[in-house]
Amino acid sequence: MDAVVILVLCLSYLFFISLWRQSSGRKKLPPGPTPLPIIGNVLQVDFKNISKSLTNLSKVYGPVFTLYLGGKPTVVLHGYEAVKEALVDLGEEFSGRGNLPIFEKVGETLGIIFSNGKLWKETRRFSLMTLRNFGLGKRSIEDRVQEEAHCLVEELRKTNGSPCDPTFILGCAPCNVICSIVFQNRYDYKDQKFLTLMKTVNENTKILSSKWMQVYNNFPKLIDYLPGSHNRFAKNFFYLRNYILDKVKEHQESLDISNPRDFIDCFLIKMNQEKHNQCLEFTFENLVSTVTNLFVAGTETTSTTLRYALLLLMKHPHVTDKVQKEIERVIGRNRTPCMQDRSRMPYTDAVIHEIQRYIDLVPNSLPHAVTRDIKFRNYLIPKGTTILTSLTSVLHDDKEFSNPETFDPNHFLDDSGKFKKSDYFMPFSTGKRICLGEGLARMELFIFLTSILQHFNLKSVVDLKYIDTTPTVNGFASLPPLYKLCFIPV
């Protein structure tokens, strides 16, 4: 009986402490729904479609509001004006990385994506410079993308027009590009180790986007002790990390300071240059994390976009036909597409932009955090507060895009058929935390898609009216349904 009384008292204490913290912390924060003790506002969020929940809440509380996801407040920015004001106009103050418990579970706090402060700034600056200057007089990144586009076309040709699931073929192409930049070598599309790596990255993206993972990230201390896909995520992550660790060790043993071969070599040389400066940014651990970030981000986002793109192009054959006619007119059948072609292909450029806008790949980006106490729209947001930016609200803004829920390349074309830029185009986010690989991703999407449509017609295995483009999950990423198609040589 005494134990029961003690338990009740402890729970009551936790309940009232949670209630007190929430009520005292809410006074100067933006408005929002009243949170329940301990669980906050989780009952008001549909984890199958967080974006829709945020849109509904913004109609009640405005473009800047507060949610308690678990016991801590998260300030949500909804709409172009709020997102731009925070991430661009106050870029430094909103440049922190918010907590993402699943990555804290696997110890991922270094690298480009999840680090903060000086470590993040130095790592990002070095990585950008190295990628931009990569090759040191050798092949450019565009050469690598073009070479991989040729390999991709040949691999698709081997399907002989039979129905196939393009998931892994489309994943291999961008993965090989990043491998050639980071590891110096590419892999054969049938290499089993390569396919295992691809399967690992693909599975973790699905897990990260699942409803279970959204719940985990709000109650990590509770769920850590339960069975579930968060444990599978960790196992996959460590498999990938150990693979990269072995690669880094191989590079250490064969490093020639006068002849760097790839990104890993450049980082090792920088480590050697900084070893007497007590520099904490260029360490072995940070190198492994940075390469892991580049490998995962450089593979899955582009491959998922490509997979979604082919589904949309099958669904809308009149769009595909216009793109192929533009390819025929500007590039022809025999020459490999290059980035210079894009300026003469406004319709193709508009289609690729519309694909990225429509699929809304990462609906709420990765969480940001404010780097100091900041007054924002007459609210006081304390240092360290998590910031959630709704990219969906920008990419699907009906004031900028006439039919935001409809796939329509005309969203990026003016009345004369020329390509029309839009400030609302933020699939890579914006501000200081904008995706480091944006330039590479844009290049890959253009060259890979034009290469595919230059050589193949896309044939659906089902009637067009049955092609469903609704994402299967809409958590961290919006993932397309599985499908098969036939690549028919032109």
Automatic annotation (TrEMBL):
Membrane protein topology class: Peripheral membrane protein
Domain of life: Eukaryota
GO molecular function, one term: heme binding
Keyword annotations of the record: Endoplasmic reticulum, Heme, Iron, Membrane, Metal-binding, Microsome, Monooxygenase, Oxidoreductase
SUPFAM superfamilies, A to Z: Cytochrome P450
Localization: Endoplasmic reticulum membrane; Microsome membrane
Predominant subcellular localization, coarse grouping: endoplasmic reticulum
Enzyme Commission number: 1.14.14.1
Residues that span the membrane, as ranges: none
Listed GO biological process terms: organic acid metabolic process; xenobiotic metabolic process
Protein's UniProt keywords contain Iron: yes
Positions that bind heme: C435
Any one GO CC term of the record: endoplasmic reticulum membrane
Pfam families hit by this protein: p450
Similarity-based family: Belongs to the cytochrome P450 family.
Record protein name field: unspecific monooxygenase
Species this protein is from: Cavia porcellus (Guinea pig)
